[in-house]
TrEMBL record, chains A, B, C, D:
GO BP of this protein: dCTP catabolic process; DNA protection
Residues that span the membrane, as ranges: none
GO terms under cellular component: cytosol
CDD domains: NTP-PPase_RS21-C6_like (cd11537)
Molecular function, one GO term: dCTP diphosphatase activity
Family matches, as Pfam families: MazG-like
Name this polypeptide is given: NTP pyrophosphatase, house-cleaning of non-canonical NTPs
InterPro entries linked: dCTP_Pyrophosphatase, DCTPP
Length: 120, 120, 120, 120
């Protein structure tokens, strides 16, 4: 059974120690980390760019799935690192966002359409 | 005190219900969600593009910090959604990746340098 | 008839004057412009994220096509600006790249497959 | 002396023939090409992510400059390919955009500030 709770404290501590041991704090400005996240998002895109939507479910493609897991992990670590450095409460930000999406996309207006809320 | 455990079950369930209620599963192929994640990464970049590294710490800039929290939340929800749809164990992927980084970037080779491991 | 030659001199000159008149050279480090390009690439992604491949041909969707033209123009101006600031010969770089792609993707190995050249 | 006119006809023709010879038109939906462009923008980001703004001028770093030229070429070819497939007039789109930017960013409001026009 997968562990379904991400322990942000542990991840933050790991990343802090990892950077400190390598003297990498000098590179870890929020701006730089945001660029690094962009780079990883680009690598994720590359895994899917020539796949059809059907193929993108990666039914029997365990090799690509491993690579995807790897890229998601990369993006996630940058999210945690950035939020740590900027003292952003990730849980709070996430749930606020999800609640806001409920308001921005009321079921009756958004059912079956991919329109942006600004177009309602 | 911020809650430092992200409950992936709760987030996944919220996102599943959110999509189902709006009949949005039709849009949520992994490929499409990866593009949506790219879009959010782009919005995060825009918040930092004209800031110096110093400014990117957002010392007294609570307004930008809120926007950053918002974009990190957006990216995070897409990561959770994609990993849910592809049955990827995010915790496992993350910690595997972190352990691998320890091997790829040994302290003695990577100390004080931003070189990629392929250049060692 | 569309004009099929992009005059890089004119575009570079426009962009230089545009930045100079607004005292924006201070913001236009190559690093910052690369982030701005990422942001525009993200906006382009957003226009396509929920479209199927079929819909992405934008057959009768002149409104989205205008937005796409707009985003492509944004990305293009950043490419020209970055290459100007770094004294990169864009024509030369492009044709070198296209020739290299011919070598990396020989017809007999790449026919009908989206494999990357590293996987041949 | 670098050639300062990009011949879009020649580039489009090259790319059409390149795709046709490899039976790659099946992969070249606008949606897929937009993802590929995102991937290349991510690679460009990676080249700059750990550089300071000063270092990003690549003064004596011809090796990185070559890689940057290479990535700019990659992004450019996708822009040309997408505009070809969607019958977008790139020259027209670019100059319309540049003129619009003059209106959106009047010198007196934008001088010395990186604010977005929506914040004036």
């Amino acid at each position: 059974m997968p562990n379904k709770t991400l322990n942000l404290n542990d991840i933050e501590t790991f990343l802090r120690n990892f950077a400190a041991a390598r003297d990498w704090q000098q590179f870890h400005s929020p701006k730089n980390l945001v660029m690094a996240l962009s780079g990883e998002a680009g690598e994720l895109s590359e895994l899917f760019q020539w796949l059809s939507e059907d193929q993108s479910w990666l039914k029997d493609d365990t090799e690509t799935k491993k690579k995807v897991a790897n890229e998601l992990a990369d993006i996630l670590q940058y999210i945690v690192r950035i939020s740590d450095l900027l003292s952003i409460d990730l849980n709070d930000a996430l749930w606020k966002k999800l609640r806001r999406n409920e308001e921005k996309y009321p079921v009756e207006l958004s059912k079956g359409t991919a329109k942006k809320y600004t177009e309602f």
